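Side project, low priority. Logging it here so it doesn't get lost.
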Amino acid sequence: MADSKREIERKYEATTDTRLPDLRKAAGVAAVVHRGVSELDAVYYDTPDLRLAADSLTLRRRSGGSDAGWHLKFPVAPGVRDEIQAPPAGALPPDLAALLRSRLRDAEVVPVVRLLTTRDVHHLTDAQGGLLAELSVDEVCAERLTEGGGPTAAWTEIEVELADDADPALLDAVEKRLRKAGVRPAASASKLARALEETAGEPRPAPTAQRKRPAPVTAGDHVLAYARRQAEAIVTLDPAVRRDLPDSVHRMRVATRRLRSAFKTYRAVLDRTVTDPVGDELKWLATELGAGRDHEVLEARLRADLGGVPRTLLLGPATARLDVWSAAHGTASRERVLAALDGERYLALLEALDALLADPPLRPSAGRAPGEVLPRAVLKEYDRLAARVARAFGQPPGHDRDVATHEARKAAKRARYAAEAARPALGKPARKFAKRMKAVQSVLGDHQDSVVARATLRGLAVQAHAAGETAFTWGLLYGEEEAAAADRERELPEVWARASRPRLRSALKG
């Protein structure tokens, strides 16, 4: 994977006559060191319909300066972006192309804007000479790249970028001095955004997160708004999964499950003959992602279990054996996830979601008031959960109860998602209902995690025994997991009683 860094910066309006104030008066700054002037030449790439810019992504190839090459930037928060860098190859490097796959699909990127920048660089340092931030005064000339030549624009701006590991409060101190000197924050979030705005005959598309849709009114409006949020989350989280960022696989998997659950729960709103095939593909994607996520959860649980064993009871090379197991299964799981995201089936799913949401298969109930349609769907999921909980209670301890409890867990998750989808329309009752369903799901989930952990612990014990090692520690952990599952089974009736109080049902109906 290409090099990656977190970029934290602020931009300010300036002119060729703007003079920098004495920034040594900014808290923490001991010196301002002039580092000279450099010439930068950057070509920015996008699809002809500017779909990267619409999501505030930046893709460029730059020459000049200390970091020449390809740069891909993802927004994290206002003023914060993750920048992935690759060498200045002629074509878009495969690593960067993969990170854009969920947005580009089969589209090609083409040059859209060229920026020529004269950069005057200053380093803000502390009393020990350590770098705190880099301030540059940039004189920019932008050209829209169209056949025969396009419009141009020019401006001057000040950019202050925080150094690695520096305190973000420094940016506030610097901004205070700049504002006192009459310098104001820039209106555009990036040079590319400003270039597109000033060289275009019409406004460019707003970023996905900022696109304004009419406020939901009908039941169909609310269900579609929820579905669109989950579909957008899948696309947005794709590069995070490829970069192996913490919790990214889990979040992407949850988005696929929420979307599939919405299609099933709100079948009175969306025609299931259209949504079921898409739901089947979402189930496939969730399964592929699950290979990575389930390993993460299981490894964390086993390491916590092993970490709690007294040293006197930690017999044999248990930690080393767990390391070997983790490396083998972790690598295989990640390879499976990446193979799914790189496959044609995944792209077909994204296209199918786009088509479905662009022309949703609405049923007559979609046009009705949300209070007439959504509570009925949520309570239907509750009744489904209640039946499964009763079935689990009726099973003797052992395999059959474990299976029944796992089925109840899946139903609790679906009931929770149903209430979360309805929350914008139903308000507090739906929020409270979802909270209670989450509590049930948590108990059932911990029980299921114990079931999976015990199966793995048994396998590790068998491997240890076959290698001539003692299996004592694995047996000890197996017993502890068995006790943990029993605790969850004893806890479930009380948690379920709180979740099934009649007043919650009546509040949701009302």
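Brief comment: The two ends are 53 Å apart (CA to CA).
Revisit when time allows.
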